[in-house]
# Entry
Amino acid sequence: MIKSFLKRFYLVLILILLYAPILTLIVLSFNNSKTRSKWGGFTGKWYVSLFQNKEIMNALFTTLAIALLSAAIATLIGTVAAIGISAMGKRKRTVIMGITNIPMLNADIVTGISLMLLFIAIRFSLGFTTILLAHITFNIPYVILSVMPKLKQTSKSTYEAALDLGASPLQAFLKVVIPDIYPGITSGFLLAFTMSLDDFIITHFTKGPGVDTLSTKIYSEVRKGIKPEMYALSTLLFLSVLILLFLVNMTPPEAERKKKTHPVKRILVRRVAPALLGILVLVGGVYYSTSSNVAGKKQVIVYNWGEYMDPEVLTLFEEETGIQVVYEEFETNEIMYPKIQSGAIAYDVVCPSDYMIERMIENDLLAELNYENIPNIENIGDTYLEQSKQFDAQNRYSVPYCWGTVGILYNKTMVDEEVDSWSILWDEKYQDNILMQNSVRDAFGITLKYLGYSLNSTDRDELYEATDLLTLQKPLVQAYVIDQVRDKMIGNEAALGVIYSGEAIYTQSENPDLEYVIPKEGSNVWIDSWVVPKNAKNKENAEAFINFLCRPDIAKMNFDYITYSTPNEAARDLIEDDAIRNSKIAFPDAKDLENCETFKFLGDKNDALYNELWREVKSH
Amino acid sequence: MPKKLIDIQGVSKSFGDNLVIDDLTLYIRENEFLTLLGPSGCGKTTLLRMLGGFETPDQGKVIFEGKNITDIAPNKRQINTVFQKYALFTHMTIAENIAFGMKIKKHTKSYIEEKIRYALKLVNLEGFEERMPDSLSGGQQQRVAIARAIVNEPKVLLLDEPLGALDLKLRQDMQYELIRMKNELGITFVYVTHDQEEALTMSDTIVVMNQGYIQQIGTPEDIYNEPQNAFVADFIGESNIFSALMVEDKLVKILGVDFPCVDVGFGKNKPVDAVIRPEDVELEKPGSGIIDGIVTHLIFKGVHYEMEVEAHNYTWLVHSTEMFPVGTMVGIHVDPFNIQIMKKPVSEDEEAIEVEE
Amino acid sequence: MKSKTLKQLLSGPYLFWAVAFIIIPLVMIFYYGLTTPEGTFTFANVAKITTPENLKALGLALLLSFISTAICLLLAYPLAIILTGMNVNQNSFVVLIFILPMWMNFLLRTMAWQNLLEKNGVINIVLEFLHLPALEIINTPAAIILGMVYNFLPFMVLPIYNVLSKIDKDVINAAKDLGANPLQTFLRVTLPLSRPGIISGITMVFVPALTTFVISDLLGGSKILLIGNVIEQEFKQGSNWHVGSGLSLVLMVFIILSMALIAKYDKDGEGNSF
# Structure
């Protein structure tokens, strides 16, 4: 009795471990609040807005299409291969099975990287096809390993018996061998399908612009907070699979004993399930192909920061100009740069920050803009164009999009004292309550400023001093984050966080206990501007896109959505709310910016030094 | 008469709704070769597993040498089993397999080595010590399984259809081997099989079982010559079984015709079952037998001819050294002492033994 | 004979595929890992592993993946035994329990642990309600280990369950019959017989745990750098593919070791991971 109770108990514990996160996600899908760290009441609205969210639906259909196609192709190749391998001698078989084991045992990261290197080396542009090829590659072994044992069980004589009874080899194969190993084939297919569905790492390395599977979409959203629609979608996916599998496995015990498949089950497994999936992907495929780049259509490939544009703006642009937008996002300048530099993907318009623009100009990666195509630039305030000259000396390459400062966001309920200095980030009182920026230049910039140096310092001693200080700070830091600082501060997870001014307005609206300050030592004032890479294929479309973004109503739409300060003065005038139009956070006085500097490009050598020192801090 | 070694008292066992053994009582004598015989699903393996300790009866007791061992774990019983599919430890060599039980009992190394040598000699596998089980043929694995069990010097050796997976010739050889080993070792064998020929060849005592009940216990001769009911008659060898009427003592009405017999004490005009072995049916000229029939089928079987004779709407199975071609009219004669009369089952329990067609 | 050769030809497409998408890409990694950006041969990229930061990242990754593998084994073995003993007439049911979570995206599931583990997370709210001390493991190595165990446990359970459920019950009975008590039966028979499952489970858990960068990213608050993170950064941020490839080569040493281990116990050459 006790023993069986213990067994049950243990089983339940493990099931809780396995299913607790899933339950959490299901609960989150009904959360009225947009951030995951706050419960805002029950709602079903995400389930509605999910189906209106084109990006998520596209990602879903890409995911399903890749999973289905890769599983089907892998099943075909794998099954046929398994039959071939089983006919081989022992030595040959061992070698081939060794190769087959490689993708299964090899680290996903190595498999992904190796395929990426291959695709880039043969100038195969990364996209849907490359993901598909990669998925087929790692799926085949699962199929082979599922089919091989079944093949071993079937006797050769059945095949020969079929031949003896007058079947052609093909008929014998289709009518005798295949039905015999059918269970192996189906389980191989299902396994491949599941693995493809769940893969992130390999897709991460082999995907191209504008193509996202659910995994990569989620990963890019992780840093800035997952869209609740994603939880809703996952819940729906999970539940539909659960129900389907439940139906399939609900075989009456009597039928089971007679080893006869229940007709309902058989129909479900053989007809309904594949048909449903097929229809789903077909419909999705049609939907997908109408909504994404069709050959011959005008398009523009945009590479922007995460959550840095109102999706409605893209729709408007497409409607007005007939130019298709392929939209992709990055998290940091440092992640964006190598993609442009490698030229593996030809982006048309990119939105880097000041110092990175300088670097790109210096490395001859940018095309000069034709300002005749961008008449709306007149709406941009002169001060900002003047500031831009720090990195784009003659205003020839860039058009400002957003600007802002870096400061400290703190929670008034947790911090009693007045916050006016970076020093508070080194105060042991706040151990484990500090969120630090997870990007090299920001982290070092803050520290250098705190030490009274320039945030563009290249002086080794100053940098080492900063490194030591950052290392000293590490035990106090709860986490190094980028956009997640927003959710965590809203959820009262930390007392202090380093944040971009643009995020401050949104976080304050969600949690009024938060306050933003630019420390007295000074900080970084930054500008993100639109540029066109030299290898852009649709330069004119890119310029039309930039011009569109400079239209006051559009700039205002974006400001309302992303709450980052706009350099578009005509747009600022359109803001109805006085408090926001005159907000010190969004539009600080010149006095507040006294000690602030703009990042400059420090040269590849110094960049490498910064990176090395940063890694030293991180691995300490 | 040797004393009782195992006493099984009123055991029952069911799996779910399925009653496998119902209130079964049986004793096994010392140094006996006892065979549990019956079709699959008759409960014989379950009974064996209860002796081994792998199943616990729902009711009843198993007494071993006067001690109740019903709830004793298998590892504490002086009984060893040879499993149906040998159940060798595939990760050990033959020597390690055989040494397993002795190592558990912490015997000395020299004792173990001596025993392994002896056991391998007994089963004719000298020199196989370092081989792995996978590299052995089915018959060889079978012998290892036996060797592994007997080195522990059990009082009883349980064998669960040990020859089932072997081919005919090997099976026959092993039957003699087993008899030889049993005599050499002087221990009790409890043997489970569904093969009646195997049972008749090897056993001292046969227990015929069906649907959880014992149908008959007896020597091979008893079982063959005097089956106590239609099931046993049908299961052991081939038979002509009739639903008949006992007219009076020494006279039975079969297929509406009176046959003289030797049985008495069934009462008057009582329904009975009558069994006639095919070799006891004598064919003569038409009219000179008790009833007449026509030969419908003929096969040469080596020692004899097997024929089917259609008579009074019944197909008689006949074994004879004399040949009657198909279509021949024949007379059928049966000597009175070759007709075996059996009571019809009346209770529900006995219903179970009705012959399944 | 002819039909046999013909049959062997069936594996042709796969062999082509394997060469194109398994072998050649690996060669590419070797090429990048052993050359400078200018194309000259060098060991410098591989030698980068010896810098204190990288060694630390590798050491930590080895430590964490070792601990997670051990925990997975300790959790999975009893579980597999219980599942085998439950006598579920359908294997698929057991497989289902463990495969099902995979239909919810792995990133989301790992993310959800943030919600559960955070200072004001679900677990701590429950603990507070019960007046128990708070659990503070988010952004620590402990959280990463939890994430690894959570994500990779199925890969340990399934192979062990598969092997255990294939062991003939009578083999276990035979051991008991020969006098072994339950502990002896387990140590001398069950455990050695399930070794192929254990080995395959260990490699299926150890390799992905050793090389992950996502779990450490999500649950370690980017404070903890594992070797996977270092390599990912070389490719995605640092843009030094040569160093990244060089470090990948170091990782491959561990992968080759596990393949050798598998080969040793999987003599039929057909794998038994699933």
Notes: The CA atoms of residues 440 and 615 of chain A lie 9 Å apart. The domain at 404-526+605-618 of chain A is CATH 3.40.190.10 (D-Maltodextrin-Binding Protein; domain 2). Residues 54-86 of chain A form the longest helix (33 residues).
